[in-house]
Every structure is written in C-alpha cells, then in structure tokens.
Amino acid sequence: MDVANAYPQGGQDIASMMSQLMKQKKTEITDKLRRDIDKIVNKYIDQGTAELVPGVLFIDEVHMLDIECFTYLSRALEYSIAPIVIFATNRGRCPVKGAEELISSHGIPQDLLDRILIIKTKTYDKDACLEILKIRAHLENVKINQEALAELASIADETTLRYALQLLTPAFKIAKMSGKDLIELEHVLEAQDLYLNAKRSSKILEDDKEKYML
Description:
Elements: H1 14-19, H2 31-47, E1 56-60, H3 67-76, E2 84-88, E3 93-96, E4 99-105, H4 110-113, H5 126-139, H6 146-158, H7 161-166, H8 168-177, H9 185-194, H10 198-207
Helix pairs in contact: 5-6, 6-9, 8-9
C-alpha cells in the first residue's frame, strides 16, 4: 500500500491501490506517507474490513547494527502494526557501533534493552539432538534405523547439529545406491568420510599447510 500510494492513480479503493503494485516504479516512500497508510490500515482493522496478522522479523548478529539502526528499530516498535522482532547474538558486554563510548550488554543500547524479553539459550545435549534428527528425517521422508540415528546423534554431539543434519541426505543417497530404502550405520559412516566437518577440515589444513597457498 505504501508503494501503491507513492504516486496514486485512479481510484483510492483497495483494488486500485493493489493494482498499482504491479507497475514498476522507483519512488521514495516518505515518513508522512507511511503514517497516512498506517491510519488507513488501522481504520480498516477497526471496521473489521481487514485483519492484521503480525509477522516475525529475525535479526541475527544484532550486535553488528549501529546506533542509528537501533534508534530506527526502537521507534518502529512503537507502531501497533509492528511485527514481532527477535534479536539473536552471542556477545556479552561490548561497545554499541556508532557510539563506541557506550558499553552495553549484547551491544544493544540500554533504552532498547529495557524493553525486550531476554531468553537464554543452551546448547543441545545428545538426547535433544537425537529427537531433532528424528523429526528432520521424518519431515524429509527419510527412513533410518536406530543404530544409524544414534550414530548421527553422537556426531552432532561431537561436532555440530547442523553437520549431522546435513549428513542425512547424502547418507540416504548412498543407501539408495546400495539398493536399500533405509539408512544404516555403514551409510552414515561413509557419508561422514566423504564430507568433512569444520574441525577435520581445519586439522587437514594445519597438517598439510605446506601444500596450500597462503
């Protein structure tokens, strides 16, 4: 609706505005235009003409944002139609970018930090990895026996869960090539041998560094 009303043409009903979204025009959407559109949207919601389903905005490595981005986000979160915003970071106390003299937890300004709910996350244990792998195998319609699943859980515990999850597809392909519809332990071990994880790759580079260009 912001884009459609940047250069309004024709009627002002929803159909007319939406049809203008198809027209390729590069234009600036001003703050005044956004405020006007927000009033229209709120009016439609109050009248029952429209329903607002809040979206989710996920920002990873949030400590990389600067003070101006945080200022904009703080103001944007005041709107009633603002999405649910999730910040993710693994930083402790560090300077806020753009205002290095300001030291704050997670690199987020204190005024914004006071308004958010902080959830502490923990690493997955072996049992949790096993359940996640089982769910992922089911979603990808991959059949795997308990022995192979337990081995993948051990791999996830020793390396990373992402690496173990990525082994599911190649292990299933190897099983198919062997004429089987079920991933077995030998297929997981072969896939692990073919695809390196970060630790094994780093060790190979370290051991054979004279063979590589700096």
